[in-house]
Design brief:
244 residues; alpha/beta; Rossmann fold; Arc Repressor Mutant, subunit A; five-stranded parallel sheet; four-stranded mixed sheet; 43% helix; elongated; transcription regulation; CheY-like_superfamily; WH-like_DNA-bd_sf
Length: 244
């Protein structure tokens, strides 16, 4: 790899654990920073806290497949997708590339060829390291920029001190996000806490609650709430949040 191109950070999504370990061992030996998971759900959760530049994807995965992940990542600036799959039909290759993959390689793949493709897309994209989301400790240090959640008044205030009233369920939602300190929390856990474990369609009901909360924040405060949707997983509060 040429010296003027920054070595990209890698993620591998592969449900064959032995193959995943082989990828990671080889690429780390080559000097890459890399992590791997075996499902889409685990990938989205890990990506939130460990940003990458290049994602190496299998197509056949439990839950969302590699095509779905590629489609999602195609909406994210700066992330390159390399599909590595045993599906060699033309239709499969076309589907992968149309979903947003930058390369479609066939298994079994020689590791040197995989590395060469990583280098090629790095040169084409001129990849640079993207800033990661602030850690919990960094968020806590940014006190002047902190949002505040009041248990007594059941309000949420922005860093300027402007606030709005929360419903009981909105407060539970915000309190759960406060307790995770910026880490993503699954819809299942949030839904069970707010609506009860036996309630049907909690994910859909939660999405409605969050949409209303965001609209309320935009209307009252004139700004978007830093409530981030973690695709196919749940929600996280991405700014510093203190409880008053």
């Amino acid at each position: 790899m040429t010296s003027d191109i920054k070595r990209p950070r890698l993620a591998i999504v592969e449900d064959d654990v032995d193959l995943l370990d082989s990828y990671l061992e080889y690429l780390r030996d080559e000097g890459y920073s890399a992590w791997g998971v075996s499902s889409a759900e685990a990938f989205y959760k890990k990506l939130f806290v460990a940003p990458v530049d290049v994602v190496i994807l299998d197509v056949g995965l439990p839950g969302d497949d590699g095509i779905s992940i590629a489609q999602h990542l195609s909406q994210t600036d700066g992330i390159v997708v390399i599909i590595v799959s045993a599906r060699d039909a033309t239709d499969d290759r076309v589907a992968g590339l149309r979903a947003g993959a930058d390369r479609y390689l066939l298994k079994p793949i020689d590791m040197a060829l995989l590395t060469a493709n990583i280098e090629a897309v790095s040169r084409q994209q001129h990849l640079v390291a993207k800033p990661s989301l602030p850690t919990s400790s960094q968020r806590n240090l940014a006190c002047d920029d902190a949002w505040q959640l009041s248990s007594l008044q059941r309000t949420l205030s922005n860093p300027l001190g402007n606030s709005f009233q929360l419903t009981a369920r909105e407060f539970i939602f915000m309190n759960l996000l406060y307790e995770t300190q910026g880490e993503p929390l699954s819809k299942r856990v949030i839904g069970d806490k707010i609506f009860g474990a036996r309630t049907l369609n909690t994910a859909e009901r939660l999405d409605v609650l969050v949409a209303r909360l965001r609209k309320k924040g935009q209307t009252v405060l004139g700004q978007s709430l830093p409530v981030m949707t973690v695709h196919n997983f749940g929600y996280a509060f991405t700014a510093s949040l203190k409880r008053a």
